[in-house]
Amino acid sequence: MNTNTPTFRSSYEHPLPLPVLSDDRRTAAKDFPEWKGEPTIKPALQALEITFRLASHVLSDPRPYSVDAREWNRRLASLCSRQMEILSLLFEQTENVTGIPVAGLGSPSRASEASLLPRLAARDMTSCLARQVLLQIESLLHMCRFTLGLGEPNRAGKPSLEYDLIVQPTSLHAFEGRCRHRNRDADVLFTIRHVSESWSCACNGLLGEIVAKIQRGDWEQAASDCWILERIWKLLSEIEDLHMMMDPDDFLQLKTQLASPSSSSASNSPFRFVSAALLEVASMSKNLKNNVPKILAVEVDPKGGPRVQEAAMRLFHSSGRGEGDNPGRLHLLQALQAVEAAVKRFFFGHRQLLTTLVGSLEATGNRGLIGVEASDIVFTEPPYFPSLDAAKTFLGDLWQRELNKNCSLEQ
Asked: Which residue ranges does the record assign to the Hs1pro-1 C-terminal domain (predicted)?
């Protein structure tokens, strides 16, 4: 299935036209030409900053029925932790941090002046979460040669990242002021969307790196990036689940206000959160399958023969799979299938989330319509890597026959 078609995209973006971050901030990402990791790391840092804005919105909400402060604190702390874990993995790769703007080694560590995190630490309602996040930064990024510069403890005396220069928190948060519906629920809904959108942009950059590394035969590094990509898809699921924390009546009222009344099909269109940027990343994740022949060092049989499948079986079952670059190839193939599982898990979870939020009738868009839901298509698609799937099927059958043979001999 082609997720780039207008029909597929519209089925996910109608009838909730949420504002998207400006294209120049999301896709240009060329403020630092010498920093190769900018297209991936910059939007990831921006997602973390937007999470701080989300914390400010929800934890300052005075409505007791609307905010479960204890659970919000837990979820936000977990979300920040997972984001910093992924950032730490990205920072571990030398090429990602080469050219990254960092204060000189002789410069003292300093806190960001524009980030919301230091301000959260100064407020009673958010100080507990902010202190926890600051400690997480020092703990999770202890292997990095620099600190983020958000006011976290810096006992190692490391130089600070030029956080304000990279993330540009002031302009990042200014985008929120351009949203039409200004109320607390809209702020929360838009902010959750922007965290997800920023990570979609980071995925886009990471996928480009994965393909480049595969093309030059850097199997281990490509596998490492694929495992990070899998983590990001799991993170996106956790971000989506934040919608469950919104008050149901206020959420449905806001959804009605945001729905386009001018569209004749508005009442019959399935309700979606997934953005066009995320759909593009899903399509790119699926297209990683095109690299399997390169990894296995074979060409696709133009007559449709099992050439790629046989090469996969030889690698999986070979006694020499621990020699040479075979381990890297094996790890990469496993990581690619892990990404597939994470993508399908995301869309399956998305459907269940929508069913809980708006009811099964509207979530599936079946008000008098006959058709298959788009998210159903994603997670019920055939395997992205059919040759690997078939190779494992036959390999499992081989071991089962071997077991049956041994049992027969024993009898």
From this structure: 142-400
* Host domain of residue 365: 1-12+261-411
Q: Which of 236, 258, 280 is the last residue of a domain?
A: 258
| CA separation for the pair 53, 181 (Å, rounded) | 17
Q: State pLDDT tens for residues 141-179.
A: 988 888 999 999 988 888 889 999 999 999 888 877 665
| 322 and 306 housed in the same domain | yes
Is residue 291 pLDDT above 80, yes or no?
Answer: yes
Whole-angstrom CA distances from 370 to 249, 269, 365, 374 are 29, 12, 9, 13
* Tokens at 279, concatenated: 């759909």
Of the CA atoms within 13 Å of residue 220, those in its CB half-sphere come to: 5
* Same-domain check for residues 247 and 267: no
In which band, very low, low, confident or very high, does the pLDDT at 64 lie, cut at 50, 70 and 90?
confident
Query: What pTM value is reported for the model?
Result: 0.90
Does the pLDDT of residue 345 top 80, yes or no? Answer: yes
Q: Are 313 and 398 in a shared domain? A: yes
How many structural domains comprise the chain? Answer: 2
Buried-state track 328-339, b at ≥16 Cβ within 10 A, e below 16: bbbbbbebbbbb
Domain boundary among 206, 229, 258: 258
Contacts of 398-403 with CB under 8 Å at 24 or more apart are 398/317
Residues 6+ apart with CB under 8 A from 160: 102, 103, 107, 109, 110, 146, 147, 148, 149, 154
